[in-house]
TrEMBL record:
Highest taxon of the lineage: Bacteria
Transmembrane spans: none
Residue span(s) of domain AAA+ ATPase: 256-430
GO biological process: DNA replication, synthesis of primer
Keywords for this protein: DNA replication, DNA-binding, Primosome
Gene Ontology CC entries for this record: cytosol; primosome complex
InterPro entries from the UniProt entry: AAA+_ATPase, DNA_heli_DnaB-like_N_sf, DNA_helicase_DnaB-like_N, DNA_helicase_N/primase_C, P-loop_NTPase
Protein name: AAA family ATPase
Tagged with keyword DNA-binding: yes
Amino acid sequence: MTAIIDRDSLVRQGHEFSAPPQNTEAEEGVLGGILLDTSALPRIKDKLTPDAFYLEAHRIIYRGCLVCLSRDGMVDLMTICTYLHDKKQLDKIGGQAKLAQLVETVVSTVNIDKYVELINEKYLRRQLIELGRDAHYCGHETLKRLDESFSYLKEKATELQSLVGGKDRNHSRYQQAVQEFERLEMNIEDSGFRFWEKNRLCKKYADVGIKSVKDLENLWFSHMSSQEDEGFKSIQEIFNTVPPQREWFLHGLLPAQSLVTIHGPGGCGKSTLVYDFIYSLVTGTPWGSDSFNEGFSTTAAQRKIMLIQTDETLGEMVTAFHRRGITEDMPILLKMKWSIDKIPQLLKKAQEWKPDVIIIDCLTSVSTYSLFSENDVEYARPVLRLRKLAEQMNCCIILIHHSNKAGGMRGTTAIQNSSSEVISLEPNPDDKNPDSTKRLLVFNKSRSRRPVSYELELIPDTGTWSCLGEHKKHEDAALTTTKNKIIKFLRSRPNIRFEVAEMQNDFGGSTGNIRTCCAELARDGLISKFSLGRG
């Protein structure tokens, strides 16, 4: 329920012209308690900041107490008196008599927590009044854009609201710092200005040990990792939870809300592979199919593609497009210059254009201006941001990278850990021909399907790839035939659910054989399987 404020009533009561909310008696009670009981300050220091005190003298005393506690491990009348004298602030707060008077007015510290609550409440009310003044000034500041004024006021209001409700002030400041950093990270497109603003943010939180932009980034990524945790559930809760059905853009290859990293040695055909993906996605045709294999099904007649190509020249890309049959009327958005620190720019365009698949070719070329090397953990942090973007936009992001000499992904293992799916495109070790166009597509890591290796063959004249089946798997011919029939049957009737018996009536075969094949196809993400439940 929203409370309605009667402003005229407030004016009649004199509130508009009265002194700001304050409770100097509570302030004296807290300061006196600190000087009387050495255990009092450690108990309240995270709940109360110097700015919460109304009187400047009280702010000076409390700030000095915090310094003494940090430096000496304790605070009493003698230590704070000496500190203020050395800082030439003793006379400013009223001399030794003021400190003695604070101690004399307190009998015990039993109510000190209540006094802290009173001080914080009055402080928040003063801040609310200050917010009103800010709104007044913003309304008259005609040189500033209106959206900037609203954004500023919203930020101040959110910051103030986070402190209401008895929350731990230290934790509230932590949440505030995370939110401010996230806003800079995801909304400022100019990377130089973003770095400038991050440095300003560092100064704001220097009192809690934030000394550099790297400290801020560590704080944010620690916060992000904490979001990956959830509470324990009972077996009954698990059984009663219906798992969400996996959504695919290209069955068995490209799941929604995922970051798919594809790596391989130079010259193995990674760019050609994703161009072939693009053609299938924008035309709604299966990928990797040939006369013996039904390949991988698309899930819509047409998908929107956003391609960031920084690893090939414009001429090389256009030639490859023409070879594959990609035409100018297809829903593809292209960008030839981009760097990994421009993720806010990418997010803004993605929110506007709403692509289904975003392809970045490749990680090395878009990271040219990175301050870190490939072997640094920090190098992979943008990869985690891209994964979050894919989840936020319900799209699939394909990130192209290079393999190392051993065949693994080049650089820090954090790149692989930050990816949802990791696929490698490798030379087929069974083919010793140096000019061979045969490759292996290896699923090294997947959250969506069974790890597997597929044999591929490139047709250079057209830029198309054929999937020849699993590597070194000698499957019964009858099973392969049944699987192809199932895929063909479902592909011709998109977005319709069928039971095993219905498929059997259409193309024959045994129920058990069809059920087994359906289970294996679903495990590989090639079809979607739905449970009818019990009863």
